[in-house]
Amino acid sequence: MARSLAFCALLVVALFGTTLAARELSLQASTGLELVQNMAYLKPITNAPESVSAAIQEPVIDATMRRKLLQSGPLVDDLSVARSFQHGIASGDPTATQVILWTRVTPVAADTRALVYFKVAADSGLNTIVTQGAVATDAGVDWTVKVDVTGLTPSTTYYYQFYSGSAKSAVGRTRTLPVGDVSKSRIAYVTCSQYPDGYFNAYRSLAGEPDIQAVLHLGDYMYEYAASAAQATKFSPPRQVQAFQTVTLEQYRARHALYKTDVDLQEAHRVHPWVIVWDDHDSTNNAWRNGAQNHKTATQGPWEARLAASVRAWYEYQPVRQVQFDLKLRIYRSFQIGNLLDLIMVDTRIIGRDRQTDDPPDPPVLNTTAGNEKFAVLFDRTRTMLGETQLEWLQAQLSDSKGRGAVWRMIGNQVLFTEMPVTIDDPDTNGYLGPVIGYSDGWDAYPETRFQVLDHIRRNAIDNVVVATGDWHGTVVSDVPFYPFQTWGRSYLGNPNQNSTFGKLGVNANFTTGLGSMATEITVTSVTSAFFGETEAARASAVKLDDTLKSLMPHLRYSNHFGHGYAITEFTKTDATHTFCFVSTILSPTYTLDCSKKLKQLSGTNHLIDA
């Protein structure tokens, strides 16, 4: 072993007491107990975009020195220290042989650093220990702990627990991914969980779902906004965020920590492994790679500094595995579930996205139309949602998935992929009804990137692509043809004089049978974030919108803009069944659950039908 038996003896005395020291010392020689790397100290921000100034980056040497100092011994835990685990535990990014375990230890005033011990066992009583170790943490990572546990067995349920001082965490449950022949896999997904909007009943219900392979959080895990006056009285006790909008590292950490105190969120994290990507509110509203709608440099400082702070806090507080350091801010990654399914998680928000078409420049430019080029930019094929590197990666992932014989491909995606309708007020189009920026923050405003994805699917005959989407705060489920509102063409407008009122799907397409559909999209509703609100008037507005979308979108299969919850897709070799679960309310912790709505797609059809 790299560390002496003397150090290990000190460690086990602290953990188990002096009377057990001799017995545990002999055990340690065979188990290999040692101080392991706290992955929270791996700072991805050292590889931020070129526009990030050196002044706001943590130099690599400083991070390295901190790790060396923390991992030099002896570092002995004191069982009399009354620390606690107020922010729960979590697991994430499972593979066939690895999983990330996460927690945050709440220190006492005298702490300058803390030792956190962990166990992983084959049973819920933690009797059959598979691996164990100790991790150092301090204020440099806001007392967070992140361990990448390796050497595990595929398709296996494990249980884990953290200890520090006199405190023990709850016992968590996680599972590794299967390999080889897999007959079934259930993937749950959630999005848009705004703490002050209501109770996280969706998380509570999701915690009780059986046989979940993984929970995908598709972004907007937290929101950046400052507290409003109404938050103080809306619930008792209040579900109130801090008075500040998150801009600095300390503020992002504090907001993440607040969310992690929610008991329903804690329970969902405790019992299922999660795969998480960020969206805009994890930094700030309508973010893109060089700015955001909700960022003003004059009062909030450089965008690069705010982005650096949000990304650093996100990595510290989420059970995610950093993919690589030489590709800046990369969170796009994939997971294989045997020969059944590939999970392909993308970043449509930060790493490659150009500015939205309806967001003004910051700082504003006077006497110009810059920032309002709503239609002209659609013909600019250099505009991108993903960036060239990520687009090539996504295309390769889709091809590789087909090549290795996986039956299904699920893309974890932040914003609406399918085309949404809008009326164009332009005499040159004869009032053509079509998706010219039907949703300016979604793929509608980045048509060339969407074309490149769909064209790759078409040219390579890749079936069974399911796009799982968040962000929208409502449920929108559709087939995904090339252009549901017009004839085949690379631009949206094409020749509007050739289109009927509702347009045409394209070449050899049939909306009823799904012929011509390249994929399907399942846009899940929010955990709490509002579309119209929670009132009966909001319900009426939602029904009206749903009816309108049904009349305008021939590729739409289901729409529901009232209610909150989650979705589960169960994949088998022959079909994928999508179940939509809605909680009856978010205004009370007492609720009922309705999971009666189901849609199905048969393998090879790329078309949704009633289950």
TrEMBL record:
It comes from Klebsormidium nitens. Residues 87-176 form the Phospholipase D N-terminal domain. Residues 188-579 form the PhoD-like phosphatase metallophosphatase domain. Pfam families: PhoD, PhoD_N. Keywords: Signal. SUPFAM superfamilies: Metallo-dependent phosphatases. The keyword Signal applies. Residues 1-21 form the signal peptide. This is Alkaline phosphatase D. InterPro entries: Metallo-depent_PP-like (IPR029052), PhoD-like_MPP (IPR018946), PhoD-like_sf (IPR038607), PhoD_N (IPR032093), Phospholipid_Metab_Enz (IPR052900).
